[in-house]
Each structure stands twice: as structure tokens, then as C-alpha cells.
Write a structure and sequence with these properties.
Blueprint (H helix, E strand, L loop, with lengths): L7 H4 L9 H11 L3 H7 L5 H4 L2 H14 L3 H19 L2 H15 L3 H17 L4 H20 L4 E2 L6 E4 L1 E3 L1 H5 L7 E8 L2 E7 L7 E2 L1 H6 L3 E10 L3 E14 L2 E10 L7 H7 L5 E2 L1 H7 L1 E5 L4 E4 L13 E3 L5 E7 L4 E6 L7 E2 L1 H6 L1 H7 L1 E9 L2 E17 L2 E15 L19 E3 L1 H4 L2 E7 L4 E7 L3
Parallel strand pairs: 5-10, 6-9, 15-20, 16-19
Antiparallel strand pairs: 1-9, 2-12, 3-4, 4-5, 4-8, 7-8, 8-9, 11-12, 11-21, 13-14, 14-15, 14-18, 16-20, 17-18, 18-19, 21-22
């Protein structure tokens, strides 16, 4: 639900002027947003002694922030602001915003609201334009509402191992004329109204249509948000008193009410078929989900599986997306938007730019049609024969992979959006068609890793 409106990395001052070589290297990684590499560096006990205290404090704070350790991030950010505020300079505002976000992620909504409002008031007193302070005021209001409700997404079930039948829904894919594709869905209920629920790691919030929100008797929260896609659209939050999935139940579950308006009649009619989407807030509460593609079930264990990789390969972004680090068959590593709501795994224009000669030589020209908030985007693409990707310790190969060039098919010019919803820094999207190449996939939100287990045989 929370979105940092001032990019942290863009706000960081250049740090490479520090004298020590280690400072320069880590500072460069930081300014480039290489958080997976910084997280790996932080595993070395000797790093603290070799880094400037300010730089070490920022690394510790931001790796906690991005790798889903909000309680620890709150402690370390508070220490950083208390001991190094003058040295931080312009970065102090970004660090304070991080503190507010992680207070909310740790369910300290009242404290988060107070902090965000103080930031808005301080900026206003300094004469900062209202357009730049509005984001802080909006977050303060959202956090204040959540604090007044209390017990947001609180589990009512006991800690145990739960098995949820994995259903497959391809209604929307068929309606759009696609020959392949589906969602993972689960049987559940919202306020005791039975619904088929989509399991979507690409959704930073739970989502529902206005029609289903009315049928499920959701309550208005008085909180809204501007959704950014190909265009912009307003959405309102509403509250479900209870959400049930299998034998698990949560209370006070917010849903973002969305009726996607693209301006394209066919796309909008297909959008009305979307079932309620269960996103990151509930998954975080689950702790770990094991997708078992052989038994066709989702397993939520009583105790999370220790990380076999020893390091994180999944990151939580400021826009509440999930980013996966994966090794490619050519020996390079890529950072991918992790989205089980997307069937196809797709390479982005950034990846294309880095592999242009090879793709132009071996790929088959095609196009990608993306429908989202505010419109429909058609971009030129290539289809390449196959791609080998590692998830955890296991490899799998997917066939016929689409590569987006980022060129608008209608204008012949670079698109301002490219793959809608994917940050420009990502190499693409990892979707279901890769995950289903494994017998099982572990998605662990405690230690932030994804691991494929035993590739399936055709």
C-alpha cells in the first residue's frame, strides 16, 4: 500500500569522493542501486571496519529496507539520523522517508503517520511547492486511517501447515485471443462471499473490482491512490472484515478497488473478468509459500524453510513490487520483476539494448500488446527460441521468449512506458511459464529468496 514518492537512489549524494577504495566501490554500488551486491558485501564482518561510518550506516539501513527487515531498518535508520544527520545533508529527507515507510511495514502506523506529517509540515515551512509535499501528506493520511482500524491483515488462524488446492483459470487469456496462459487461483471467501482468488506476486496490494467489492460488502476506508500505468487512474481502498483462503483467515484486509480503464472496449470488457487479486500484504503474512506444480497445491508451512542459497535473491521495492536476481544461461545475471500474475516471462527493452546484435540476428519480429491503466500499448518485439534461467540452485529452460524493444509500433519511436509496471532498471518479467518448469518453487518472504526445486520433465 505504501509508495515512496521520492526515489531513494536518485536522492543520494555522490559518495565516491571518499578516500578509501572500499568506500569508493561501495559508494558506486549504492549510487547505481546495486542492492543485491551490497547485501552480499554486508555479509562480511570486516566491512564495517573498512567503511566510513556514514556509508556503513546507510548500507545497513537500506539493505534492511529492501530485504524486508523493517524492524531492524527502523532501529538503524533512527541511529543514522541521530548520529549523522548533518553529514547526510540532503539525504536526511530520504532517510526519514525510509524510516516512515518501514514503521508502516512494521505495523507502527501511528508513528509512521506522525513522521510523514512532520516531514510535510517542515517542507511546507521551508517554502517547498505543494506538489512536492503532497506525497508525504497523502501517506500520513493513509497511515492514520490504517492506525485507526488496527490489526491490519491480522491472521486469525493458528500457526500450522496449510495445504491449498491450486486452481488454474484461463478465462481472460482465452477471451483476449491468447493460445496459452493462465492464472494460479485459490478457492476462498471475502466477508463470507465465496470467490476464486488470484495468487499474484506482482501485486503490491490486494485488488478487487467495484462490482465484486459491492457484492462482498466491503467498507469504504476514505483513502485513495493514483495508479500509474500507461496512464493514470484514481483508485479507492475498501476494507474486508475477513478474508478466508482454505483454512486460513485474516481480518481487516484492505483491497484497492480498480476498474481498469484503458479506453479500448475489448480490453476493458476482458478486464471485467478479473477475479479478486491476493497480493503482497497477505503473502507477507504467510511467511512462505511453496508452489507444488506436481500435486497442484500451495503449501504454507508452519516453519519457514532455511535459505539453501545463503543469500537473498528477492528484493522488496519501494513501489511494493518484488525483484528477483537470476542467473542466465549466458553467464550474466539479471534483475526481474517477479509476477505470477503474468503467465509469460518477458525480456525488457533494457535487456534488449544489452543484447541487441544477437537478438536482431536470431529473433523473429513480433509485437507485444499491453493493456493497463490509461490505455493499450503495442510495442515492437522479437521472439527468441529459448532461454535458460536459474532459480536458486536449479535451472530451467523456457521456449519462445518475447523480447520487448521499447519501440511503439504505431509511432516507430521509443515508448515512454515500455513494459507497463516494470521499472526501467529491470531486465524483464519472470512469470508462471518459468516457475511451472519446476516441480516446486519456494517463495520465502522472511529470508527473501525464491528457489526452484527439481526441473520437470516434458
Amino acid at each position: 500500500m505504501n509508495r515512496l514518492l521520492i526515489p531513494i537512489v536518485a536522492a543520494l549524494l555522490p559518495l565516491a569522493s571518499m578516500a578509501q577504495r572500499t568506500d569508493e566501490r561501495i559508494g558506486t554500488l549504492m549510487n547505481d542501486g546495486k542492492w543485491f551486491e551490497i547485501e552480499r558485501e554486508m555479509q562480511s564482518p570486516a566491512l564495517q571496519d573498512s567503511l566510513h561510518p556514514l556509508l556503513y550506516g546507510m548500507c545497513r539501513t537500506l539493505t534492511d529496507h529492501y530485504f524486508n527487515r523493517p524492524d531492524s531498518s527502523c532501529v538503524h535508520t533512527s541511529e543514522l539520523l541521530q548520529n549523522h544527520q548533518q553529514e547526510l545533508g540532503a539525504n536526511a529527507l530520504s532517510m526519514a522517508a525510509v524510516l516512515g515507510m518501514d514503521m508502516a511495514r512494521a505495523n507502527h502506523y501511528g508513528e509512521a503517520a506522525d513522521l510523514m506529517q512532520r516531514l510535510a509540515d517542515q517542507l511546507t515551512a521551508q517554502g517547498v511547492d505543494a506538489s512536492e509535499t503532497a506525497g508525504y501528506s497523502t501517506l500520513a493520511h493513509q497511515y492514520r486511517v490504517l492506525d485507526s482500524i488496527g490489526d491490519i491483515c491480522k491472521p486469525l488462524h493458528t500457526v500450522a501447515e496449510y495445504h491449498i488446492p491450486m486452481l488454474v483459470n484461463n478465462e481472460m487469456h482465452k477471451a483476449s485471443g491468447q493460445t496459452e496462459g493462465h492464472f494460479i487461483t485459490m478457492a476462498g471467501s471475502i466477508n463470507d462471499t465465496s470467490e476464486e482468488l488470484v495468487f499474484d506476486t506482482g501485486a503490491g496490494v490486494n485488488i478487487i473490482s467495484s462490482r465484486l467489492a459491492k457484492e462482498c460488502k466491503l467498507r469504504p476506508m476514505g483513502v485513495g491512490v493514483v495508479m500509474q500505468g500507461i496512464g493514470k487512474q484514481w483508485g479507492d481502498y475498501m476494507l474486508a472484515d475477513t478474508l478466508r483462503i482454505g483454512e486460513m483467515t485474516w481480518k481487516n484486509v484492505p483491497f484497492l478497488v480498480v476498474d481498469i480503464e484503458t479506453g479500448d472496449a475489448r480490453a476493458d470488457s476482458i478486464g471485467t473478468m478479473l477475479h479478486p487479486v491476493i497480493g503482497l500484504p497477505i503473502m507477507l503474512s504467510m511467511g512462505e509459500v511453496r508452489l507444488d506444480f506436481e500435486k497442484l497445491e500451495l503449501v504454507v508451512p508452519a516453519t519457514c524453510t532455511p535459505n539453501p542459497l545463503k543469500l537473498c535473491n528477492m528484493m522488496r521495492t519501494d513501489s511494493e513490487g518484488l525483484c528477483l536476481l537470476a542467473q542466465m544461461g549466458d553467464g550474466t545475471c539479471g534483475e526481474f520483476h517477479f509476477d505470477t500474475g503474468s503467465y509469460l516471462s518477458t525480456m525488457s527493452e533494457k535487456w534488449y539494448a544489452n543484447h541487441k546484435a544477437e537478438v536482431d540476428r536470431t529473433g523473429i519480429p513480433d509485437s507485444i500488446r499491453t493493456a493497463g491503466v490509461g490505455g493499450v500499448l503495442i510495442t515492437n518485439s522479437y521472439r527468441i527460441p529459448e532461454m535458460k534461467i536459474q532459480l536458486g540452485d536449479s535451472w530451467a529452460t523456457i521456449d519462445s521468449v518475447m523480447v520487448n524493444t521499447g519501440i511503439d509500433k504505431r509511432t516507430g519511436k521509443p515508448s515512454s512506458m515500455g513494459l507497463a509496471g516494470v521499472a526501467a532498471s529491470n531486465d524483464g518479467v519472470i512469470g508462471l511459464n518459468l516457475l511451472e518448469r519446476f516441480s516446486q518453487v519456494i517463495i520465502n518472504f522472511k529470508e527473501m529468496y525464491v528457489a526452484g526445486i527439481k526441473p520437470r520433465q516434458d
